[in-house]
Amino acid sequence: MGKLFEKFPDPLARLIVVFLAFLVVGVIVVAVVIPKQMMDVSAQWADAVKREEARPIKYAGFHVCAECHDKIYETKKNGYHRDLSCETCHGPAKAHTDDPDKVKPVIPAERTFCPQCHAYNPSRPRGFPQINPVAHNPLKPCASCHNPHDPKPPTTPKECSACHGAIARMKAVSHHVQLACTTCHEVPQRHKVSPWSVKPTKPQTREFCGKCHAKDGKDKMAKDAPKIDLAEHGEKYVCWQCHYPHSPEVEQ
Amino acid sequence: MNPELIRNLHDLLPQIQGYIYPNEIEIHWGLLIVVYPYITGVVAGAFILASLVKVFNVTEVQPLYRLSLLTALAYLLVAPMALVSHLGHPGRFYEILLTPNTSSAMAMFGFVYAWYLMGVLLLEIWFVHRTDMIEWAEHETGVMRFIHRTLALYSRDTGEVAVSFDHKALKVITIVGIPSAFLLHGYVGFIFGSIKANPWWSSVLIPIVFLFSAIVSGIALVILLYMILTPLTGGKISMRCVDKAVDFLFYAVIVDFSLELVDFIHRVYQSEEEIKILSEMVMSKLFASLIIIQVLLGMLVPLLLISLTKIFKKRFHLNEDLRKMVYFVAVILIQFGIFATRWNVVIGGQMFSKSFRGLTTYKMEFGGLEGLLYAIFLLALPIIILAVLTKILPPWKEMHGQPASESAEAAGS
User: Fold this and answer.
1) What domain count does chain A have?
2) What is the ipTM of this complex?
3) Alpha-carbon span B80 to B74, nearest angstrom
4) Does residue B138 have a pLDDT over 50?
């Protein structure tokens, strides 16, 4: 120690001593004080793996079902429900695959089941098939009209409301109730089959609403529509920046 | 569910707008996490100010040197308290040091912190005060003598070799210290900036913005302390020093402001899907804290005030008291502004739903570990610690413009 103090400048030598002291304490803490189990991750994992392995297996996965229910499997594969696993609807079926005659999986036949995914809910993506379970063909089980393994809307829907329920319901109680959707949107027939790739038009200009609402509106419904001065009213903005077209309201 | 939680949620529910996922109703990173980056920011900023003296030889601000080092230390000691108190099990915090997890930025904080505290700040303070402590101890008795002796590690060597080593060491430490201070605070920004799922945080600019706002708050705080403490301890404020420090503050605020502006413009121009909900949040929930306090009162007004002293140079030079007043108001406003910045980052980042369809509200508690009282305590604690530190390592002489000791004099020149 004496040598150290001669060799280095005094302050450095003292710091080295302090540093070494920290190092020794640190090494002692790490090597002696901390329990080995705490550092050894594999021990913790091993326990976790054992714990998980001990759990009973309840799900079989849907490929197994193909062995015996090949027809249903094939039907479902190409339908709208292709992304759903069989056990999403039939519940865990491992026991059934082991002994099909003794154990039968549940069959979700009641009407409350499908609306878990299909009831109208604003947080679902636009275009996801949604229905109002109270109003949509009540009293009959869903499976009586839709094949759960290959669901289709039995026919191509005629009404826009099948897919745009919220808008249709809103318009139905609004001042624009007499206006058909197609007054304002030109809808190609293909839109109802592949709505994502073929889209209807939307009004673009102020003059469009002016057909009925301008002082000199020419449309055949124009006589019932309240009139505004197209040049002045709302200035340069398009009308739907202030009036929601599907439920036009006027605050007095 | 536990009834207290339900009661809490019940208060919040009416304040939610739009659609929000259930786990976003309550804001989990609360006031303490706001306090934490504010405090580390002060540390980094104060240290940068100190390094102006040591590395860049800005002699005008020499009176702030020791004060800023002590301020940095006082705030650094409190910084982790905010984090530890926020843990569910504060008693277990040391475990992240014992079982390092190198893939987690948060877990590595302990090491960044320890490096900065032990490897930079304490070392620098020790070297600055070593010869002083030896000298003080000679004229003292009792406890103070013991404290100074021990802190000097019983060193008594004030010879040429030792003192010149002190100076060399100081240079090296400060040079290593600047990137370390950047690391400390840049790291805090990094933690927010690297959260991919949160568009309010996720930005490469965030660490740099954090850094410059840190420099702003640190310099402003040290100026404020200097302007308060000097008259209290019977000295006279050196306007030469304050003018220079305010100069640096001014540049830092400008850089900070421009960076935030760039970030803002970039977001608006990119107009990613989240822009709607973010602008709604800024215009409603964050309007007071972001537009009014952070930008208007915390940046534009101080910038304007300081610019006035520069534009009407003659006028302000004649009237020192007026200039002091203006600076004083500016640095106080800046403190509030930077605190609001932290608030807007931390609380703002949790106020909008990841569905981008709704906003929630932050309900601050009053008592308890997450509450307002405790946060105020944490903000006051560094000042108390600083008071104790100045008892042990008085910076007054240097602040009053006298050479604190030969060593400081020599090092500063």
Assistant:
1) 2
2) 0.72
3) 12
4) yes
